[in-house]
Amino acid sequence: MECTFKIQFENVYKDFEQKQVLRGLDLGICDGETLVLLGRSGSGKSVTLKILLGLLRPDDGKVFVDNQEISDLDEESLFPVRKKIGMLFQGAALFDSMTVGDNVGFALYEHSKLPKNEIREIIRTNLAFVDLAGTEDMMPAELSGGMRKRVALARAMANKPEIMLYDEPTTGLDPITATTINALIRKTQKEYGVTSIVVTHELESGFSVADRVAVINEGVILEIGSKEQVKNSSNQFVQTFLAGPK
Ligand SMILES: Nc1ncnc2c1ncn2[C@@H]1O[C@H](COP(=O)(O)OP(=O)(O)O)[C@@H](O)[C@H]1O
Ligand SMILES: [Mg+2]
């Protein structure tokens, strides 16, 4: 596919002790697209996101963001790269002892020099964006699982990231809440123009938010393309995976 790559993985390898997790991962994500990385549990999806965030180092291969190689940067040089990236972690843990508003504004209060009233305005805007206007003073324990996920999304967006990473955003949610979260992922792309990677093992959710789909297994990409291309893949594993559990 012809596009400007926002993110590129080139022949990336990662082992843990004796276990090979990524085995020559090649993956390009186009500027502004939502790429869904589909694969069963343990296939290396979360490790791929952690490498992009610089939380893990590849053993071999290269990772680029905006054509800048990030795989060999030290912590200090990684900082401006990380600022471009918002991450919705699996589980989306909030700080239980803080209000919703303080959760959303946490990174800005800690790491930015923005005045408090501007931070409050960002919190207000982001909570309205996820349809939780006016919940600033509530505590996480008062919210449903779906609402907590939306607060976590508002928090991940606080820095106005160019890139959003979603790790299993709908896993464990009921179908209606999952649909709401998927709609928010689309809305985030549409209104902010972000480039997104959505990692999931859930076929239906994955296909509903994707511009393109990549199927990963045992640390390599088996197929990548439009939903149609992936559905018509000649790869046997891809077909078995798409057919679902028997
Ligand atoms: N920090 C770590 N130390 C050791 N093994 C790990 C670590 N992180 C992940 N793994 C292993 O790597 C494999 C892939 O993990 P992961 O990327 O989390 O899979 P998933 O596709 O389910 O997100 C798993 O077998 C996991 O146990
Ligand atoms: Mg995972």
The first-level CATH class name of the largest domain = Alpha Beta
Q: Proportion of β residues?
A: 25-35%
**Major sheet: arrangement of strands:** 6-7-8-3-9-10
* Number of helical regions: 9
List the bound ligands: adenosine-5'-diphosphate, magnesium ion
Q: What would your notes on this structure say?
A:
- The protein has 246 residues and is α/β, with parallel strands linked by helices.
- The chain is 38% helix and 26% strand.
- The protein has 9 helices and 10 strands.
- It starts with a strand and ends with a helix.
- It folds into 2 domains: 1-84 and 161-176 and 195-246, Rossmann fold (3-Layer(aba) Sandwich), CATH 3.40.50.300; 93-158, no CATH class.
- It has a 6-stranded mixed beta sheet, with helices on both faces. A 4-stranded antiparallel beta sheet has the order 2-1-4-5, covered by helices on one side.
- Residues 45-46, 90, 167-168 line the site of magnesium ion.
